[in-house]
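Is this the right way to post structure tokens for a design question? Let me know if I should format differently. Anyway, here goes:
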């Protein structure tokens, strides 16, 4: 089995795609008017409009309802990413080092999902992720 992507359902797909292009620095590939993907070196983010939910099962997913998942992206310098994004996103926490050794900043996407950018900051974290 191979983990393929995380799919987000958006009430306003254009706003979501623009947001994730800003955060990741990658351009989306629009595979249909209701569906786009952003492929980074480590993950694929699929973004579907609410219209796509009915293709699976009506009501099985809804935009703005997530309060359990945090999408995490490893970056080279979390502090510089914070400076770049802080005036363009809804910040949840400013950069800080967490007990497991990652320096992290968190903010919300337009549908409310928490996005975490992190940089390994301790030897333990570097042992888990390697050095860049």
């Amino acid at each position: 089995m191979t983990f393929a992507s995380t799919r987000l359902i958006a009430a306003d797909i254009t706003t979501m795609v623009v947001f994730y292009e800003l955060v990741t620095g990658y351009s989306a590939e629009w595979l249909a008017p209701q569906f786009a993907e952003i492929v980074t070196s480590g993950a694929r983010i699929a973004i579907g409009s609410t219209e796509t939910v009915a293709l699976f099962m009506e009501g099985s997913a809804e935009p703005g309802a997530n309060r359990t998942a945090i999408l995490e992206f490893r970056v080279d310098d979390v502090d510089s990413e914070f400076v770049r994004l802080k005036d363009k996103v809804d910040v949840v926490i400013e950069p800080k080092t967490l007990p497991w050794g990652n320096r992290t900043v968190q903010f919300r996407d337009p549908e409310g999902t928490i996005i975490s950018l992190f940089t390994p900051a301790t030897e333990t974290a570097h042992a888990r992720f390697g050095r860049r």
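Format looks fine. Someone answered above. Worth noting: The longest strand covers residues 90-97. The chain has a mean pLDDT of 93.
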